[in-house]
Design a protein that fits this description.
Elements (H helix, E strand, L loop, with lengths): L5 H36 L3 H4 L1 H24 L1 H21 L3 H20 L1 H8 L5 H30 L3 H5 L1 H15 L14 H19 L4 H24 L13 H31 L4 H7 L2 H21 L1 H19 L8 H27 L8 H35 L5 H30 L11
Amino acid sequence: MPERPVRSRQLALVVLCLASLMVVLDGTIVVVALPSIQADLGFTPANLAWIVNAYLVPFGGLLLFSGRLGDLIGRRRVFLIGLSVFTVASLLCGMAGDQGMLIAFRCLQGIGGALTTSVVLGMIVTLFPGQPEQGKALGLFGFVQAGGASLGMILGGVLTQGLGWHWTMLVNVPIGIVVVLATFAIIERDSGAGLRAGVDVLGAVLVTAGAMLLVYVIVDTGAPVRRWSLLALAVLLLAGFVLRQQKAPIPLLPLGLFRSRPVTGGNIVMILMVAGMMGFQFLTALYLQQVLELDALTTGFAFLPTPVTNAVVALWLGPRLIGRLGTRPVLAGGLLVAAAGLALLTRVPADGDYFTDVLPPLLLAGIGMGAAVPAVIGTAMSAGSPEDSGVASGLVNTTLQIGSAVGTAVLAAVAASRTSSLGETVMGQREAAASGFRFAYLGSTAFVVLAVLAALVLIPAKKEFPSHA
């Protein structure tokens, strides 16, 4: 791709990050609105989770295939298709009048979100092939990913209490229309390798079915026998996918990518990091509401320090540190700072105070993730040819989703189990809940500490990411 003017590339980056922000926000903005949706549409507690799961299952399952599709038919085309589907689905979700319609349209949203998100990283590393511009661009993308979840909780509280839960869906519509129009005007068309280059249909079916089933098992709360059976089936499908990629003439996921230490190490670090940090956000939202008894709007604003500090580090300090010290020290150092914040949360009391017990960990989490997220994304995207950047982008986003689902499911189960066991004693319910959160925060800290160790062992000690040609 010929070099484009700096301003043109910066405008394209803003468009891509705005689309990513819209998809990231949707992952948490709805969480705050769940009680209102339950009251309005009559969801049972068991069925309520499907408002989230109906989005996550197709989203997580389609990312890898969508990334390769972008390599074949053009990343801008896949981006526009996904964005259009996501925007229309958001409108339909906002107009849904019963449970079945809402769940069906949330599934459609997940499909659109996967198509949109899967190609964004590939487009960014193609627009900014060298340092330090790529580091700064990934810093902005990293802020969108790490800070967007917190911003979603704030916006969800404002919209739910001010306008109603429908607007947590409808807010995507005007933003989506603007981004679609801006994409036509600003982002240049890329042709891709073409479908004649070959589509591994069997591989696509195996990985999509396997990944969807894996995400479903992670978020499902059904009978253990059923979950273990489905997990075994998911493993068989994914194992079949790996075998297929070894024999396919044009594989969907070139296994040679995993010979690169940055790619393999970056994805392993990412799944551990995201498991700890997304689980932490979920736990903290519950602690603030169930133990400190804050309302939804106040809980949303309580997270504000995290995206603010994240922005300062990710957009300004992080790229400078990476350029001076290298990727591995910044990644490991950022994760250590985040782990320190999580460790502080293992002491939160039942009669805690936000400013003394919660705010300092939130600040440390924002600083640490602001440094770590751009570094680990850049590492995971640093190897392979530009022609494979779409599938590499899909792989990174699949890792993000699996890590998020695993962390949230595991830590929520740990907190619930601990609370339930203590609730049967003379300990009060509030103290039992606080103890459950403290125990789960230990798990969150452990995930991030493991990510630090993985970064030190698996990430090469290089001054900067390898650049795409």
